[in-house]
Amino acid sequence: MAMALRPIDNELPTTPERPKKQAKVAVPIRKQPELCTNDENKAPLPTATADSTVDYVDSESLESIQDPESKIQSLIEGLDSKNWIQVCESLNNARRFALYHSNLLAPLLDKVMLVLVKAMKNPRSALCKTSIMASSDLFKAFGDKLFDPSTSDAFDQLLLQLLLKASQDKRFVCEEADKALNSMVGSLTPLPLLQRLRAYVKHGNLRVRAKAAVSISNCVSKMGLEGMKDYGLVNLVQMAADLVNDRLPEAREAARSALVSVYNAFTENEEQKQEAWQNFCQCSLSPIHVQSVVKFTIS
């Protein structure tokens, strides 16, 4: 009987036919243009900003306005504009009115000052700086008229903003505010200005306090002995004594300068200058303040 043959498992496997390679066709790839390059070896191209379109014009370069009577109404419309660039232009026009046509601007002075206050609070540096420059021209043009009841409140708000801006970190805003404060001291009578500045001697912001101290010192340097007495010699020395030990050097230096001005005026006609000054300080100040005040004024 024939036996069935078993399949042999150890046969060599058949090799499957390898697929033929497809011929590669070179397809040219179009290089996309670079939208933005960041080559550190190339200087970046300057970009135009809105602030760069605003011109900062010195007071000496401002010109009078042709036919100012017909343009005073458009000034108010420009100051009320929602377009901040137009507001800047109107502020420069307000400066021209102040310098050359102050009689036309006088009835609108309160409104213009409030616009300055609002502009100084604006985050746009160009608008802020232009308003500060305008305040300098108002000080020069109107002087003590800013103390009138009709503008007194607006002036107080303006003074606070100038002290705040002079305390900022933005250098060109800070420097312009310093100029405006100097213009204010140079244009206004010291006594009423000093009465307003004294409120900031104890301000919580150290820089505001220091800027106020500088303006106070500048005011005192313009006053004679009679003017100091009108304010109150004791109050004046006590105010300066409070600032002598302030945390900021700028405030301390301003306080010392103010004390020297008081000392020079007080002892001008005294034969025994140091003795007269020491007696006055001992009668007017606390023992803690007497030593430091006498030290800085006599040394």
Automatic annotation (TrEMBL):
Highest taxon of the lineage: Eukaryota
Database matches in InterPro entries: ARM-like, ARM-type_fold, CLASP_N_dom, TOG
Record GO biological process: microtubule cytoskeleton organization
A GO term for molecular function: microtubule binding
GO cellular component terms, A-Z: cytoplasmic microtubule
Limits of the TOG domain: 61-287
Start and end residues of each stretch annotated as Disordered: 1-49
Protein name: Coatomer beta subunit
Organism: Trema orientale (Charcoal tree)
